[in-house]
Write a structure and sequence with these properties.
Elements (H helix, E strand, L loop, with lengths): L3 E5 L3 H12 L3 E5 L11 E4 L2 E4 L8 H10 L10 E3 L2 E6 L5 E5 L2 H11 L3 H19 L16 H6 L9 H6 L5 H5 L21 H9 L2 E3 L5 H12 L3 E3 L4 E7 L2 E7 L4 E3 L2 E4 L3 H8 L10 H6 L5 E9 L9 E4 L4 H11 L8 E4 L14 E9 L8 H18 L10 E7 L1 H7 L32 E3 L10 H17 L2
Parallel strand pairs: 1-2, 1-13, 2-9, 6-15, 13-19
Antiparallel strand pairs: 3-4, 5-8, 6-7, 10-11, 11-12, 14-17, 14-18, 15-16, 16-17
Helix pairs in contact: 1-9, 1-15, 2-15, 3-4, 4-8
């Protein structure tokens, strides 16, 4: 008799887990609260404009390719991937700019014109970080259920390269003298919602992942990945129910035996997989008597990532002079980061990201028009910012900066459609604890066996996938969490 797996949430982790298990003969049912799949890796439209809700960088495509291969499919049969030859444009104070390319001749010229002798230092960076990457990545493909897992061969071999005792910014000092050049290889800590001055040096591999493996766009938007995975699940006979929220997990004798839906229906199962936002799921779908470790008080003591302020614009113009990805640094980047992470202030000169996707993908907007996606890292809701009062003012500040500092001239007067998402919206509409979109922070005390385990600690027959478990947040690591948890389920006899 086939074993049944019930997955709570159709985000990328839940979907990837469902794809793997449905391909191995498990009966898979996914229950999603929202009327759409993908979670933060979903999409929406404004008129004829299509936007990714969340992730716009697709990295480490090999992980998802391998998952598709494991299920007997090919990723490239389901989506079209476009490698971005210009990885991104970085804009600093005083109109200093740096373009980074995949082509070594182009990046040599760009780096050396930005900072004398930078390319030779870049080659040293690539060489050293490639070794570090190869040592650390195997550590992210295995589960950690206790301190003793740190004695596995993969981890022992990686110890000299982990750099847990120093910050990410300190690691980059080994390669680059120019502080602004260091920022080009440390801003990626924003992908995990942390400061480069606080993130462990381990995460220097984030920038290497881009430079060593490339940055990809998915035609139609990165959300197409979730749609592709959902298609495979259905081809395998799995079922996905949207607009069907789970009220609670049914636990008997310290085992998950099913879920109760909001409509009162009870679904009994062999395994439950939680893909909902970690802290939100603990508080809302697990009875307090069934969680001794993750009580409300303990959850409130944990460290969470920053949030984001989002602006999505459908505009009557294409800025062909700018690339797909644009990072605009605050004049005082460290102050801006400290405002976000330490003090909970809204900076008057914030750093932000602009996706100018229509220069790559004509399917996202009507001809001659474009989608502009702006992401601004901001404090999470633990700092109690009154977004009802700040929303319009902050939006106008960012659009002013996009026009004047980022160079997107006449942006405001070309806007046809707009949507704004604040940390309050992330928390209330997307059920994200404190609006912390990158989930639990990735400090040393919340990594590996100190992070919520893939095989849930509170009771049996329950597993976690997503950014709140090992290996962490970001699409590649979320897919990896799905692979780890699926393998644990398949090993459970």
């Amino acid at each position: 008799m086939r074993k049944k797996v019930t997955i709570i949430g159709a985000g990328p982790g839940g979907l990837a887990c469902g794809m793997i298990l449905s391909s191995k003969g498990y009966e898979v049912e996914i229950y999603e609260k929202k009327p759409f799949i993908g979670g933060r890796n979903s999409s929406f439209t404004l008129g004829e404009y299509t936007f990714d809700l969340g992730p716009t960088f697709f990295l480490m495509k090999n992980i998802l390719e391998e998952i598709f291969e494991e299920t007997g499919k090919k990723l490239h049969d389901y989506v079209k991937l476009i490698e971005l030859k210009t990885m991104y444009r970085l804009k600093y104070k005083e109109n200093r700019e740096l373009y980074l390319f995949r082509d070594l001749e182009k990046i040599e010229k760009s780096l050396n014109s930005f900072s004398n002798g930078a390319y030779e230092k870049y080659k040293k960076y690539l060489s050293s970080e490639e070794i570090k990457y190869k040592k650390i990545i195997p550590c992210l493909s295995i589960p950690y259920s206790s301190f003793f897992d740190l004695f596995r061969p993969q981890f022992i071999k990686a110890i000299p390269w982990i750099d847990a005792h120093v910050s990410l910014f300190d690691v980059l000092k080994r390669y680059f003298d120019d502080p602004e050049l260091r920022l080009a290889f440390t801003f990626q800590s924003k992908y995990i919602g942390m400061s480069p001055w606080e993130a462990p040096g381990t995460f220097s591999i984030l920038s290497y992942i881009e430079h060593g493996g490339g940055i990809y766009h998915v035609e139609g938007g990165v959300s197409k990945l979730s749609q592709a995975i959902a298609k495979v699940i259905k081809e395998n006979g799995g079922k996905i129910y949207t607009s069907t929220p789970v009220k609670k997990i049914i636990v008997k004798n310290k085992k998950a035996v099913g879920v109760e839906l909001e409509n009162g229906e009870k679904i009994y199962t062999d395994y439950v997989v939680i893909n909902a936002d970690f802290a939100n799921a603990m508080i809302n779908i697990i009875d307090p008597k069934d969680r001794k470790k993750y009580t409300d008080i303990e959850l409130s003591k944990k460290k969470y990532s920053c949030s984001t302020f989002m602006i999505y614009l459908g505009v009557k113009k294409i800025w062909k002079e700018f690339p797909h990805h644009n990072i605009i640094f605050a004049d005082d980047y460290k102050k801006n980061v400290d405002d976000i992470i330490k003090y909970g202030n809204l900076s008057e000169d914030p750093s932000f990201y602009i996706q100018n996707a229509s220069v790559t993908d004509s399917t996202l907007a009507p001809e001659g028009k474009s989608t502009i996606y702006i992401l601004v890292p901001v404090p999470n809701n633990s700092y109690k910012i009154n977004w009802d009062n700040e929303k319009d003012r902050f939006k106008n500040l960012i659009i002013d900066l996009a026009e004047k500092k980022a160079g997107f001239k006449d942006l405001r007067k070309n806007i046809e459609f707009e949507r704004i998402i604040t940390p309050n919206d992330w928390e209330k509409d997307m059920d994200i604890y404190l609006g912390a979109v990158f989930n639990l922070a990735h400090n040393i005390r919340q990594m590996l066996f100190l992070r919520p385990h893939n095989k849930f600690e509170e009771f049996d027959n329950c597993y976690l996938v997503g950014g709140g478990t090992h290996p962490g947040s970001g699409l590649p690591t979320i897919y990896q969490s799905a692979k780890i948890s699926s393998e644990l389920i398949m090993k459970d006899k």
